[in-house]
Amino acid sequence: MSDFEPFYDVNRTYEDNYERGPFGEFAEALKSDTTQGSVPHADENFMGVPVNLAFGIPAGPLLNERFTTAAFRMGFDLATYKTVRSRAWGCNPFPNVLAVHPRSADGSLTPGSAELDEGVLADTNYEQPISISNSFGVPSQSPDAWQPDMQAAIKAAGEGQLLVPSFQGSRDPGATEEAYIADHVTTARLVKETGAQVMVMNTSCPNEGHNRLLCHNPLLVGRITEAIKREIGDTPLMIKLAYIPDDGALETMVRATAGLGSVQGFSTINTISARLVDANGEQALPGAGRERSGVCGNAIRGAGLNMVRRLAAIRERLGLDFAINGVGGVVSPEDYAAYRSAGADSVMSATGAMWNANLARDIKAAR
Ligand SMILES: Cc1cc2nc3c(=O)[nH]c(=O)nc-3n(C[C@H](O)[C@H](O)[C@H](O)COP(=O)(O)O)c2cc1C
Predict the structure, then answer these.
(1) What sequence ranges are listed for the domain Dihydroorotate dehydrogenase catalytic (predicted)?
(2) How far is residue 192's CA from residue 231's CA, in Å, rounded to a whole number?
(3) Which residue, by CA, sits nearest to atom 28 of ligand 1?
């Protein structure tokens, strides 16, 4: 695998990837004008928008229009534009990605397990089945840069393909809840102005206090999505959830959002937080506040499937019809099938796609 080059090159900075990427097979795909592995028949949908196969890449490794266009050409019919904000926002220092090596034989990490606090080995030894950690801090260009680029990305989708914009609110230290809600509404409006047909709001971002995520406060998420819905009208809104262990808390989230009509779908899961250590047991990522970081890829598939099953059960019990987008550890066609069986209407892969640019074609060939 020494000559293997993921389309997002983990050995380069975020800025370098933004300016010069994508790399490897995605760079080759950009040189040709044809979409590979896509048939011009939309027989599935993503929150009501017809698509060929409801499979693609979630928010993260597709930094701009060149990345999303390359993803479309490689047969990923859903390409998510990396999370944008209402203003320019810097990236955490390099490195932003490390390989992680959980102790279990199958490489899985279970939410709530002691290993997540004791430390998981992280280094630059990337192995299949791939698990990594990513630590970016959700950087964003300013809207002056990302709005025209997102508009071009939307236009570059082929037949039966859909550009999915992702956004989140930004909270200044000491800012009021009202200001935080208003920033979400502003960002959603900026996204809508690009011509977006759907949008995904990230709620797995830090809220107040360390390790407290916005999605741990369902009532605040409910207030935010209600305010956004007033701004964006009929445009379908999906929210991205981190793993939520408690069934009661998950149901409260569903009732406060989809139950009130402000949300049409859930995308889950985001990364699972773990303490990362090097071979000497020292902090693996350099710098303050980076003792813990989010793990994704093979290690978190069990947790992702578990969230999708529980959401599907709540959907059934409450008689609601929201969409479920299954994310987390999809590295093979079998993993894609497992998410569909668990109740996902669509499926996405970030880490798995980075280490196999042909994943969408493999899944289509296996169907
Ligand atoms: C390089 C990278 C960057 C990411 N950046 C974002 C982001 O900006 N916004 C977001 O909601 N999720 C982000 N994620 C999380 C993914 O969307 C996804 O939820 C997570 O990686 C689990 O999927 P996976 O196991 O297929 O990687 C990122 C993931 C990766 C690998």
Answers:
(1) 171-356
(2) 9
(3) 60
* Nearest atom, ligand 1, residue 59 CA: 17
Q: Where would I find the beta strands (DSSP E) of 173-313? A: 199-202, 237-241, 265-268, 272-277, 292-297
Of 270, 324, 349, the one to substitute when testing ligand 1's pocket (max ligand atoms within 8 A of C-beta) is 270
Centroid of ligand 1 to alpha carbon of 247 (angstroms): 23
Helices 247-256 and 218-232 pack at an angle, to 10 degrees, of 20
pLDDT tens digits along 54-86: 999 999 999 999 999 999 999 999 999 999 999
14-366 placed in CATH 1.10.10.10: no
As a whole number of angstroms, the distance between CA 253 and CA 216 comes to 9
**Ligand 1 in contact with 95 (CB < 6 A)?**
no
The reply to whether omega before 22 is within 30° of 0 (cis) is yes
What is the whole-number distance in angstroms between the Cα of residue 271 and the centre of ligand 1? 7
231 CB burial (10 A radius; 0-12, 13-18, 19+):
middle
Q: Tokens 């303050």 identify what position?
A: 288
* Nearest ligand 1 atom to alpha carbon 329: 25
Phi, psi of 206 (to 5 degrees): -60, 135
Arithmetic mean of pLDDT over the chain: 95
Asked whether 202 lines ligand 1 (CB < 6 A), one says yes
| Atom 19, ligand 1: residue with shortest CA distance | 270
Q: Is the dihedral of CA 347, 351, 354, 357 positive or negative?
A: negative
Report whether residue 85 contacts ligand 1, using a CB cutoff of 6 Å. no
Given a cut of 50, whether residue 249 has pLDDT beyond it is yes
Burial string for 2-41 (b: 16+ CB within 10 Å, else e) reads eeebbbbbbebebeebbeebbbbbbbebbeeeebebbeee
